[in-house]
Fold this sequence. Notes:
Layout: H1 3-25, E1 29-33, E2 39-43, H2 52-73, H3 75-86, H4 90-99, H5 103-116
Antiparallel strand pairs: 1-2
Amino acid sequence: MSNTMTNYAGFEARLKKIDRNRTRMAQGYKGSVDKDGLIVFRPARRQRGIPLRAVVMLIVGFFVFKGMVMAHTGASIYADRVAALQQGTVIEQAGAFVMQTDPITVGIAQQLRPFLQ
Length: 117
């Protein structure tokens, strides 16, 4: 293989690497400053899975929803409706298990009750 062909193959490899890097950076990038003061942009790392903050917000939102329903209907009617769900199909029983009364829901309902009347 001649020297020209070797140089050309190396050049093609560098072009492929630049192209791959640009494609990855199109999805997002992060800039940082090196030790020598040079600003370097690198492709952002992709997050895997669901962020913990989203899961926590979803759980908090669900408890607030349960508290609002309990505050709006009242504790006895809420308990009657959950008991009725427990007598239903498997899906309704699962819903009853999730919607059952717990201390967090009762506390939220007590806090929201004055605003809903």
